[in-house]
Amino acid sequence: MTDRSAGRSRAPIRVLLADDHTLVRRGVRLILDGEADLSVVAEAGDGAEAVERARSEDVDLAVLDVAMPRMTGLQAARELSRRLPDLRILILTMYDNEQYFFEALKAGAGGYVLKSAADRDLVEACRAAMRDEPFIYPGAERALVRSYLDRLHRGDGLPERPITEREEEILKLVAEGHTSKEIGNLLFISAKTVERHRANLLQKLGMRDRLELTRYAIRAGLIDP
């Protein structure tokens, strides 16, 4: 007896693609839409829009750039993991950075793909994510595991975050030039609360003004220089 369902084609994986560079999105879309089992059904130009689109569209997988305006890919991943726990998430980045990789995993991402190797790795990473299998770009596994084990042997563990997730969100928006009122509207908190977080940031980081906060945000990869 034959299984009739075996001959049926499954519906393509519905992908949300978020990157603030239109040309990058166009290139990545060509890669994904070229596969029968993948279909880009929504796009976003920043992390906040990605969260909005993921909540309003029927998507299975979000592919998020790290450095985006308003909300980074890591911040968006954290928010999406909280709001849409069944959504699969991949981080697509130009940063070959160990700390970003571990932050991506903590944020709920199932994979980390370098833009420089997207044409080689991204399709495989998408399929792995939908199978609930982690994906990390080839060549990095040994270095990451060795570094992690070295830290454990030294008793170091992972580096602690100097600021909270909320403070990081506010730091990014401050560095982008948003006013306290604008930040409050974006994060659904009062301008007074924003000012309190901003004061805490300055005290924690030992800084005096927005310019120093902006420099720190650039070094932390929250905004592009």
TrEMBL record:
Residues recorded as bearing 4-aspartylphosphate in the entry: 65
Domain HTH luxR-type: start-end pairs: 156-221
InterPro entries tied to this protein: CheY-like_superfamily, NreC/VraR/RcsB-like_REC, Sig_transdc_resp-reg_C-effctor, Sig_transdc_resp-reg_receiver, Tscrpt_reg_LuxR_C, WalR-like
Keywords attached to this entry: DNA-binding, Phosphoprotein, Transcription, Transcription regulation
Domain annotation Response regulatory: ranges: 14-130
GO biological-process terms attached to the record: phosphorelay signal transduction system; regulation of DNA-templated transcription
Highest taxon in the source lineage: Bacteria
Molecular function per GO: DNA binding
Pfam families the record matches: GerE, Response_reg
Gene3D superfamilies hit by this protein: 3.40.50.2300
The protein, known as: Response regulator transcription factor
